[in-house]
Amino acid sequence: MDTLTKNITLAPMNLLYKISPEITLRILFRLKTGYKLNLDHPVTYNEKLQWIKLYDKNPLMPICADKYAVRNYVESCGCAEILNDLIWEGFDPEEIPFDSLPNRFVIKATHGSGFNIICRNKDELDYKKVVNKLKKWLKQKYFPCYGEWFYGVVKPRIIIERLLTDNDDSIPADYKVMCFHGEPRYILVDTDRFTSHKRNIYTIDWRLLKGVTISFPNGKPIDKPSKLEELLYYSRKLSSKFIHARIDFYIVNNKIYFGEITFTHGAGFSKINPFSFNVEMGSHINLPLKKKSAAGKDKNESCC
Prior knowledge:
Radius of gyration: 20 Å
Low-confidence stretches: 291-297
Number of helices: 9
Shape: globular
Strand order of the largest sheet: 7-6-5-9-10
Mean pLDDT: 93
Number of strands: 13
């Protein structure tokens, strides 16, 4: 289901979110996870992501959620060397210089997930169709009722980057490093993302967590990457300012490339099995729960 169709389906929830974000997230959480959301004493990873969406207003989050603005953040962290080549950026798809683009590239809208067009052969690309699709994407909000408020705060634009592929011309594995308070804990490795999506979960010393799944089935075990320590190094630098962040990378020809930063993996609705791993992941997030004082003012108490 594409983003536009899904937004139409979720229209009642999008309206309700404008009235009460908390009620909306409670309803969606129950429907998607099968259990009641506890915001007073959240325990699971998914529950704590809902809390982050409602109460964590870190001003860096909108910048890092935007696929163009995040480049400046990566540079400011001293990690410019892992940025992919930026071929073009702009707000008007009509201005894309298709004739001067290389034969292969990837086009992205910067304000959400799934707004990607992979081009392996420019001669086979329908320019008019692409421009029309990009115009629609730029007008769309990224699932407002999901509460991921940081998407679209920075004005959305189009970027075109170099297409990264492995030696066999396949899309490389996606290394998603799950960081908690600036410290990596797990690495999700996604393969075959555009065919039969598979995902393995590893500890940071590359121990495969057998039988643990997050949204997608396990694939074949893959070898420990030679750049593992560098992945962890970059993850620490890029996640240090956040309660929780997923830092994504690719490794192509033994070189690390930055992918994106995500703050609420799966919008906090991921199917995590076994349930005990949902709890384990949640245990790494320490939230400053907002509570009302006797005077009626908000105060923060470290909890969960």
